[in-house]
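Handoff note, outgoing to incoming analyst
You'll be picking up this chain. Sequence as last confirmed:
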Amino acid sequence: MSHIIYLTQIHIAYGVLQQLPAECEKAHIRKPLIVTDAGIKAAGLLDMALKALGRAAVVYDQTPSNPTEASVRAATSLFQQQGCDGLIAFGGGSCIDCAKGVAIAAAHPGPLKDYATIEGGSARISERVAPLIAVPTTAGTGSEVARGAIVIVDDGRKLGFHSWHLMPKAALLDPELTLGLPPLLTAATGMDAIAHCMETFMAAPFNPPADGIALDGLARGWAHIERATRNGQDREARLQMMSASMQGAMAFQKGLGCVHSLSHSLGGVNPRLHHGTLNAMFLPAVVRFNWAASSVQQEQRMERMAHAMGLGAISGAAPAAEAVAQAITAMNARLGLPSGLAAMGLERAWFDQIIEGAMADHCHKTNPRLATAQDYQAMLTAAL
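Most recent structure output, in case you need it:
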């Protein structure tokens, strides 16, 4: 049975950062811990947040590019030592996911892995979690409107944590914060948003609202990612990319698939690899794999994605899937992203470990076509 819930408050417009004090008041946050990273601080964005907040706040600015259980522990220790009563996640998806990890750890005992989805931990995450307000500074993960977080736990696995209690109390989406993003980061995070829209649209579960949101998000993201990458000051493109990011995450409560099971696993093997870039590398191979699901529904989905991407009217799942896959590869090249996984330093010696992680990932079973280990090997090879 499908479970459809849309919960959080979303403010999306230039200048909505100024609503931060009011949202803290609504969430009964008097002494927040701001979870951010060193790059955000160096770029001057943290100063903008502190100015908008208008009062003292404790800051944790050491979130790594892929949040780890160690970083969650460090931030949680600061949260508890300073007597904080809530969280402001300020940054990209890593900062928001790290803050969600703190929300769990500050109120629940034991190692973080005990609360991971594949460990049966979702039910252990209770309403005791610390309240959280999310302010994204990139347009990619959409974690600000999602119930989940991805954290590398102490044993090296990159695991998902999912609970409606982790949903931010409010999300402030101010495109002003993204105007200074460099081109490659704009491209990589933008392709992350597009991957969310595409993969959730292809996913098997029945969720018509998610399908509509994802398809519209794909159209917005595909039409504006090049503009945002080429001209970071293009305000309309930045707004549309922030919406595409939000829409991808609103929709992926439906489920994702092989793109994410592979990128989650590979990100655990090598945490230096950027998640959005990995998604962009895997998308063409997974699209080609999915068209063979051989259903009328999947055929229609391929055709509708092609139309949303402006590829014209294409009849048949195989031609549509091939057109979509080729368009993604061409877009990656135009955006200046790597030509494949080999260019990112992937080693074939990692394949077995990546495949083992992908088969266990929470996204594996919602792909429209269930992948075997041999299928994953073929996808990895195709993405090289």
